[in-house]
Design goal:
There is one protein chain. With 303 residues, the chain is α/β, with parallel strands linked by helices. The chain has two domains: 193 residues, Rossmann fold; 99 residues, UDP-galactose 4-epimerase, domain 1 (Alpha-Beta Complex), CATH 3.90.25. The chain contains ten helices and 13 strands. A seven-stranded parallel β-sheet has the order 3-2-1-4-5-6-11, sandwiched between helices. A two-stranded parallel ribbon has the order 7-10. It starts with a strand and ends with a helix. Bound molecules: nicotinamide-adenine-dinucleotide. Nicotinamide-adenine-dinucleotide binds next to helix 1, helix 4, strand 5 and strand 7. InterPro entries: Epimerase_deHydtase, NAD(P)-bd_dom_sf. Pfam families: Epimerase (PF01370). This is NAD-dependent epimerase/dehydratase domain-containing protein.
């Protein structure tokens, strides 16, 4: 089947592309390489370097006729979204709408949207958080993801357009970029490698760390699902950033120092997702606990 993966040169999108190709799908990767890398792209994928906002997108749809679209391309930097909400909305809202309009025009059968479970609910919800919890995103990034979920509801209502939303927790694993405001695991492992202190802003905030291959398995599980649905993808386990740093030092057997700095204003204090819904409906559950996932990620970072 012809499948378009936006953001296929990025961390999660490149693993997804590998898995789809291993399952013999024809994969078309669309990526502007703003935070992804050409070296991540599977050699068997057809690659187009283009911004999702670009009007030329229609030529790719015309030529490649994808039946399924996985949408991962995004401006992923929460702090940048706060500094420049217009830039974030251009990429994450207008870019996504350009993609969706082409999906309708060129009769895409199903759209799988990679949303966020980390930034969509905000603080003050019960943890592990279920999909139907109140959503009060505190950043333009979270607001943009929620907007696209609402647009998907509109497209479904208007055109009977089929979609699945996956709200991911904090994903970590090989190929995660440690530059900018990347995942904390990648930043810590890069500091470990370079013998720098692990900098912790606050430390008692909790996160739900889910390993990238578990996320890819969830993406594959929903590929042939007929119904339109929204699922959290997390582990249901809360880990403080302090605990994460200590765990990394213990597993690696390294002696890097930990440097404590004040909390960053506005940063979410608690995040942890319930995966009960997708477990019940599609029998998905994480296979990697944090120790095993960190060991696999460390092996990659050593290289
Ligand atoms: N990593 C996480 O913890 C996490 C958690 C929740 C949700 N997500 C979502 O998962 C998706 C993938 O994130 P990731 O961690 O792999 O990040 P990433 O930065 O590695 O991947 C994003 C990819 O999209 C591309 N891209 C960005 N803007 C684009 C545009 N306008 N046009 C075309 N390509 C563009 C980038 O070059 C990059 O290759 C994103 O939608 C992100 O919001 C990630």
């Amino acid at each position: 089947m012809a499948i378009l993966v936006t953001g296929g040169a990025g961390f999660i999108g490149s693993h997804l592309t590998d898995s789809l190709i291993a399952k013999k799908h024809r994969v078309i990767v669309l990526d502007d390489l703003s935070s992804g890398f050409k070296k991540n792209i599977n050699a068997q994928a057809k690659f187009y370097q283009l911004d999702i906002q670009n009007k030329k997108l229609k030529n790719i749809f015309k030529k490649e006729k994808p039946k399924i679209v996985y949408h991962l391309a995004a401006q992923i930097n929460v702090r940048r979204s706060i500094q420049d909400p217009i830039f974030d909305a251009q990429k994450n809202i207008l870019g996504s709408l350009n993609l969706l309009e082409n999906c309708i025009k060129y009769a895409v059968k199903k759209f799988i949207f990679i949303s966020t479970g980390g930034a969509i609910y905000g603080d003050g919800v019960k943890v592990p958080t279920q999909e139907n919890a109140l959503k009060r995103p505190t950043s333009p990034y979270g607001i943009a993801k929620l907007s696209i979920e609402k647009y998907l509801h509109y497209y479904n209502n208007q055109y009977n357009f089929r979609y699945t939303v996956l709200r991911l927790a904090n994903v970590y694993g090989p190929r995660q970029n440690w530059e900018g405001e990347a995942g904390v695991v990648a930043i810590f492992l890069n500091n470990l490698k370079n013998k720098k202190p692990l900098k912790i802003f606050g430390g008692k905030q909790t996160r739900d760390f889910v390993y990238v291959s578990d996320v890819v398995n969830a993406c594959i599980k929903v590929l042939n699902q007929k119904k339109t649905a929204i699922y959290n993808i997390g582990t249901g386990e809360e880990t403080t950033v302090n605990q994460l740093a200590k765990k990394i030092l213990k597993i690696s057997n390294k002696k890097n120092t930990i440097k404590h700095l004040p909390y960053i204003k506005g940063e979410q204090l608690k995040n942890c997702l319930s995966f009960a819904k997708i477990k019940q409906e599609l029998q998905w559950q994480p296979q990697y606990d944090l120790n095993r996932g960190l060991e696999a990620t460390m092996d990659y970072f050593k290289k």
